[in-house]
Amino acid sequence: QVQLVESGGALVQAGGSLRLSCAASTSIVSFLAVGWHRQAPGKQRESVARLIRGGRSNYADSVKGRFTVSRDNAKNMVYLEMNSLKPEDTAVYYCGMSIYSDLRNGYWGQGTQVTVSS
Q1: What is the sign, positive or negative, of the torsion defined by CA atoms of 35, 8, 44, 106?
Q2: Residue range 76-104, pLDDT digits in tens
Q3: Are 38 and 93 in contact (CB under 8 A)?
Q4: Which of 5, 7, 24, 64 is the most exposed place for a label (fewest CB within 10 A)?
Q5: Cα–Cα distance between 56 and 43 in angstroms, integer?
Q6: What span, in angstroms and rounded, lies between the C-alpha atoms of 69 and 104?
Q7: How far apart are the first and last CA of the chain?
Q8: Judging by DSSP bridges, how do beta strands 46-52 and 57-59 pair with one another?
Q9: Residue 41 and residue 107 in contact, taking contact as beta carbons nearer than 8 Å
């Protein structure tokens, strides 16, 4: 069983930056897709960013140009660099990895809280 542990969530002011990290308990080389979802209070969980092995990436329209997803296969880590944060970015952020391009059927962590104050 693969375990994913997110870290880096914090309280930050609007306009600030955060870097979320996701550590996997095993090698991530075999995972075709890695990425992040988030869930805000009272809202449905949504996809934020996805990175396909080979370099293709997808982002939610609301974070394009501000967030960047990356992976380090040597360290078994996935990251989410978040800049120009807005109060509407407040949510629990979940890291996911899958051997398929669709992350929904992959492995997920327990989440890390990001709170952006205005």
Answers
A1: positive
A2: 999 999 999 999 999 999 999 999 999 98
A3: yes
A4: 64
A5: 28
A6: 17
A7: 40
A8: antiparallel
A9: no
